[in-house]
Amino acid sequence: MALADSMPLLAIDHAQGPWLFDVDGKRYFDAISSWWVNLFGHSEPRISAAISEQLARLPHILLAGCTHSPAVELAERLSLRTQGVLGHCFFASDGASAVEIALKMSAHAWRNQGQTGKTEFVCLHGGYHGETLGALSVTDIAVFKDAYDPLLLRPHLVMSPDARQAGAGETSEQVAQRALVKLEQLLGLRADRIAALILEPLVQAAGGMAMYHPAYLRGARALCTQFDVHLIADEIAVGCGRTGSFFAWEQSLGDKQASAEWPDFICLSKGITGGFLPLSLVLSKEDVFQAFWSRETAKGFLHSHSYSGNPLACSAALAVLDHFDDRDVLGNNAQQAAILSGHLQPLFLDERLEHPRQMGSIWAFDVRPEYAAPDMGARLRSRALEHGLMIRPIGRTVYLMPPYVLTPELSAWVARELSAAVDEALPASPAYAHRAPSAATA
User: 0.85 cut: is pTM over it?
Assistant: First the structure.
């Protein structure tokens, strides 16, 4: 709130495609898809039409004792994308709610199966899963959770497979293997008390776009199976094609994509409605579903939201899936990603930056500590706006997560303007960083 005095809020009047237009008519490229939700551009006609059609038919109905076609179809189509392995779908309203559901469902399922001691959770260093109390408990970002620490659960934190931790001559896969050793040690000691491991597949987004090798997912799945622990894949930020496959988890699967290779839960939100309406889902396996099959109310999964499975949101999500089904979204994204990566190469060679990285439609780099003044994020965000780019650095990390509407010309423009903003916002020498006035980082 205090930052608004020095950096007023950006008053957006309307949006079209990748562009945001403020009340004065200036346009900005939405380089972060409005917090990673807007997949196909703002005001996308197909999604708008699907919502309008549903609006005239059934805007809302409770999902308690009732059902409706958009929810059923959405659950079935998402299940098919897991080859039917995760065949059950629980609807909610936002990403944090989906995480809460998965955590509760895991512990409750174990309880129903007589393992009442399995009430603990494991999460990764630097992970982020939301800001309601349960989700915040398994988040490891101090700025979000420190004020609420007395209210939170006490999870087990294990080493992140973040590839930036690689030592001299060490590969990202070797970092992943080191992290798996730490996970195995913990599970060997506490498996009888642990309900689930929760992680963000391939990219820890809010933790600074920390990217890692899919070998970690394969190894974590094997360890969770070995020690009888659930695995929750939080695909809220990285699902819907962001990493190059519809589910990021797919990149860890073998050719046969056996049931044992999939997680027990997948949490999905953000991009699933293309940035139009809030919706989240938790997909789960058959054995989880069967754990709640009882006429005893206490054994049922008791969790509800007034807008769970809202027909308008489900219709938007179905239109998003239509894009993936009848257009080569992933193939086109791969082509456009290669073009933008090429244009970003000169920037990535800047001596003030480190750890340039890209996965699917996510690009990131870190500003070296000696060049990162306390107000670096705010200055870079301000300079980027002057160049027509809306970005939000995370600490020392600068990232791009644009809508899936890039063209070669637009990619060249984005790279050029971002480079100019970085050059203007960062000091020419590290000595300046230590003289810069202190301010909160954006």
Answer: yes
